[in-house]
């Protein structure tokens, strides 16, 4: 189905589309939510208006993102229950401090905090050294990692395994669109898919090398080459829309040579790779 468009739809239609996206029958969902199949059918067809508690229960079992749960509540005539605050807000100060600690402690390796649209919310001091030569307009906020990586004036010319890394990013984008139904992500997909495809890219991602234990991002940095893999982490118990949409992506060197290069690139590092 390619995601669930949510705006401008009746709540029953929204919930039905989410159920279909999650590949659940009415019988399966009703059993999980402890509600009769008949009542669920009435909700989906508009013959019954769900309570806010029912919308939230269905949203939980359908794994609907918090932003879209709020929209479903509005569609059902109820007030949203999940706040959306800036990360700088006092209520989020402890989480923001924890994220900053994660970024700082990850140096000399790069790490970023991204929002739903792959925009950089925060980054550690190891990131800027990898961006040398990127067109200034691509670095203007909000800095979008997909544009930055795949654009011909971004990192793409220095990505030594661009076809495979591009296929990986586009697959992640498709999965997030399916998970969220977000129109901004659809627009982003149309944009980045229109960038010139690298030579050697076929309709399917190329086969991994027998030497790869994980898919690396192989980047030329000056006269050196850095090979990195990433680990993404998210808050598992977020009750705020902003926090629900954040991801911390931490990059690790794939080999000792890359570890040495990253250590030397960190601002203030000595020749041995440690900070002054």
UniProtKB/TrEMBL annotation:
Give the matching CDD domains: HTH_XRE
User: What superkingdom does the record give?
Assistant: Bacteria
Record-given protein name = XRE family transcriptional regulator
Q: Which InterPro entries match?
A: Cro/C1-type_HTH, Lambda_DNA-bd_dom_sf, MLTR_LBD
Q: Name one GO molecular function term.
A: DNA binding
Q: Check the record and name the PANTHER family matching this protein.
A: BLL4672 PROTEIN-RELATED (PTHR35010), BLL5781 PROTEIN (PTHR35010:SF4)
Annotated HTH cro/C1-type domain ranges read: 15-69
Pfam families associated with the record: HTH_31, MLTR_LBD
């Amino acid at each position: 189905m390619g995601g669930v468009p949510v705006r401008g739809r009746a709540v029953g239609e929204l919930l039905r589309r989410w159920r279909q996206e999650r590949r659940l029958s009415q019988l399966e969902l009703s059993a999980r939510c402890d509600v009769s199949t008949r009542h669920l059918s009435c909700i989906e067809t508009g013959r019954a208006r769900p309570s806010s508690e029912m919308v939230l229960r269905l949203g939980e079992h359908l794994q609907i993102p918090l932003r879209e749960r709020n929209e479903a509540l509005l569609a059902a005539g109820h007030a949203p229950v999940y706040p959306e605050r800036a990360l700088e807000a006092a209520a989020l100060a402890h989480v923001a401090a924890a994220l900053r600690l994660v970024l700082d402690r990850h140096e000399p390796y790069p790490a970023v905090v991204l929002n739903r649209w792959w925009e950089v919310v925060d980054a550690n001091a190891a990131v800027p050294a990898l961006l040398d030569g990127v067109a200034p307009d691509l670095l203007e906020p909000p800095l979008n990692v997909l544009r930055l990586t795949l654009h011909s004036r971004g990192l793409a010319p220095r990505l030594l395994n661009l076809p495979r890394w591009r296929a990986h990013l586009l697959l992640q984008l498709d999965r997030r669109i399916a998970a969220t139904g977000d129109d901004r992500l659809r627009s982003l997909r149309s944009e980045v898919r229109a960038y010139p495809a690298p030579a050697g890219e076929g309709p399917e991602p190329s086969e991994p090398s027998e030497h790869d234990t994980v898919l690396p991002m192989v980047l030329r940095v000056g006269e050196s080459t850095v090979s990195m893999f990433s680990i993404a982490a998210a808050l598992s118990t977020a009750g705020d829309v902003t926090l629900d949409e954040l991801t911390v992506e931490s990059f690790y060197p794939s080999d000792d040579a890359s570890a040495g290069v990253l250590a030397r690139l960190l601002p203030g590092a000595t020749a041995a790779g440690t900070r002054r």
